[in-house]
Amino acid sequence: MMAGAAVLLLALGGCSVTIPTDPDGTLDRVTGGMLRVGVSPNPPWTDLPGGTGEDPEGTEVRLVEDFAQSIQAQVEWVPGGEEDLIGRLERGELDLVIGGLTARSPWAEKVAMTYRYAETAGPEGEKQLHVMAAPMGENAFLVELERFLLEGDR
After folding, report:
1. How many angstroms separate the CA atoms of 75 and 67, rounded?
2. Which is nearest to 145 in space by CA: 16, 18, 17, 22?
3. What is the distance between the alpha carbons of residues 66 and 132, in angstroms, rounded to a whole number?
4. Model pTM greater than 0.70?
5. What is the pLDDT of residues 28-47, one digit of tens each?
6. Exposed/middle/buried for residue 144 (C-beta within 10 Å: 0-12, 13-18, 19+)
7. Triad 123, 103, 87: Cα angle to 5°
8. Element (H, E) at 140
């Protein structure tokens, strides 16, 4: 069995396969480019000011802005409701969706959820594990985002 694993690793190494990978190239496209982020209002995580052209505010907005800076990307904010934004993420129109999502989100079957990056108490004292939504299968992008989110105290 060990010999078979070694042969497989050698074969993959010769094919220039990188792991993790993004079938749609999300990380390569957004690095140094444009990160399209859907944002649904859910203060204090995300908030949409009333004025046209104003950027969103909130804890997750600042995290995304810092992440974008770390990969030298500009952020294009796309406001909307969760259902619409998740659909757009599934169709490849967005790269990320934020809005105070938790690990118990009903969208977890449709999109990739990051590892929890924050823990808070819910309205009834229950534990809430906060996540962001990314495209399913875009694992290099997801790993880079999770690495950023898990660095330091958040």
Report:
1. 10
2. 22
3. 14
4. yes
5. 999 999 999 999 999 999 99
6. buried
7. 110
8. helix 139-150
